[in-house]
Amino acid sequence: MKINTAILTIIVVALMFVACDDKLGDSVALVQPTVQLVMPEGVMGEVTNERFEVKNVTTGRTAIYMSQTDLELRTGLYDISYDADVICTDTATHQPVTRHIQAFAPSVEVIGTSANITLTAYETVVNDDFVISEIFFTGTLRPNGNQYYGDDYIKIYNNTDHVLYADGLTLLESKFTTTQKYNYKPNVMDTAMTVQALYTIPGSGRDYPVQPGEELWIVDTGIDHRVANQNSFDCSHADFEWYDVSTKPSNLDVDGPTVTNLDKWYCYTLSFFVLHNRGFRAWALARIPMDKELFLADPNYYYTYRYVVVAKAGTYPMSQQAFMVPNRWIVDAVNCSVAAEYAWNVTAPALDRGWTHCGTMDHDKSRYFHSVRRKMLYLREGHPVLKDTNNSTDDFNAYCTPSEIERQGTAIDIQGTPCTSVTWDGITPKQTSR
User: Fold this and answer.
1) Burial class (CB in 10 A: 0-12, 13-18, 19+), 229
2) Mind giving me the DSSP string for 331-355?
3) How far apart are alpha carbons 331 and 128 in whole angstroms?
4) For the segment 79-89, what is each residue's pLDDT rounded down to a tens digit?
5) pLDDT digit string, tens, across residues 230-245
6) By the 8 A CB rule, do 163 and 404 touch?
7) Which class for 110: exposed (0-12), middle (13-18), buried (19 or more C-beta within 10 A)?
């Protein structure tokens, strides 16, 4: 089909027929919906290779449809993902080029004899920068069962085929949580990520080269944690740590003497920063094209928002402020949550359409000693190529043994049972001489 405007409207004749559902013992209506596809600005051309992935929110079942005419849904609630290629004409060369678009519509309700679905598409590009390969937010437990703090970490990976420089790369944590959804106004999510922590890798531009297939290990506290907790592991050889000069004498941070500090741009806490240990936030990497002072002082990146809290005691209008980082600066983002509490993603679908997890419910005690790790697709010259589709549900292995616990052979549980296996991604076995 030929697209001549920025809005592609796909009108599908509504058809309805009756099918027998043996389990329910009655007739269930099938609806062929009307789909309106809103194209990204400047993307016009022939749409090909369409793919609809439809997930029934209630049952968890997923179906794939390769065209709009095949799309048939029963009454229910659905998450709908869309992929397609658009054959466009390059404005400079006047030659045909293929551009890829995606869209995501959560919680689409199909009811009655018809359904209207609006899919707002965005253009996707191949990421030529670092990706987050692992997030260890759960932490470990002391032998007495108490939560231990300080050994949480994030790993970032060069998934390209050339050298990348980590200088200036900023680690972000979301302000909003994936377990509590409010109608924030104005809504800026399509253009920016609202953040509460920014820590930047120092350097002048070429101080920290990372070869293809290599990663950087960024830790909370760069010390040997086994000294304080025999169930933990050694972080004294990490590449970087985030360190905070606390204003709370009773809650002082520890500066690991052998690990380079990140440049702290901003953090919400007056004591010290730790990753949310149930994983209710999103984490991201950004290339901010200005220095710290300019960014922090620029009102364009400071977000004042309003929302309403509805509780048994009443309704409470709220107003808060936070920094926001434009989506165009973000090179990777990962949303985390747990199934029993998940409410929404706190980044735009263009950054991440899914989410990953450790544990299944809030305060899940089984979450400790586990991380989320990006899936390996194949080996290239002995190094993993990791999956990166901007959908953390598909891209990550959830609830894995952390790579550092595997590498160091340290405890996998409160009893101190040593880890004896090593994997590429938490699932795929790795040959080892241990």
Assistant:
1) buried
2) EEEEEB--TTT----SS-TTT-S--
3) 8
4) 999 989 999 88
5) 999 999 999 999 999 9
6) no
7) buried
**Cis peptide bond N-terminal to 40, omega within 30:** no
DSSP-derived secondary structure for 255-288: --TTSEEPEEEEES-SS-----TT--SEEEEEE-
d(CA 274, CA 3): 49
pLDDT at 301 > cutoff 90? yes
- Rounded CA gap, 25 and 11, in Å? 33
pLDDT for res 431: 73
Question: Would you state the structure tokens that stand for residue 136, as one six-digit string?
Answer: 């260890």
How is the chain split into domains, by residue range? 7-124, 131-408
**Which helix (H) or strand (E) covers residue 222, if one does?**
none
pLDDT at 91 (0 to 100): 66
On whether the CB atoms of residues 307 and 184 are closer than 8 A, the answer is: yes
- pLDDT grade for 152, boundaries at 50, 70 and 90: very high
Judged against a pLDDT cut of 90, whether residue 21 lies above it is answered with no
Task: Report residue 147's pLDDT band, with 50, 70 and 90 as the boundaries.
Answer: very high
Dihedral sign (CA 353, 357, 361, 363): negative
Contact of 18 with 113, CB cutoff 8 Å: no
- Residue 65: helix, strand or coil by DSSP? strand
DSSP conformational letter for 24 = T
Query: What is the DSSP secondary-structure string of 293-343?
Result: HHHHH-GGGEEEEEEEEEETTEEEEEEEEEEEEEGGGEEEEEEB--TTT--
Q: Where are the beta strands (DSSP E) in 175-280?
A: 192-200, 209-210, 215-219, 240-241, 260-261, 263-267
Question: Looking at residue 13, what is its pLDDT?
Answer: 33
Please return the burial class of 310, using the count of CB atoms within 10 Å of its CB with bins 0-12, 13-18 and 19+: exposed
CB-CB neighbours of 432 under 10 Å: 12
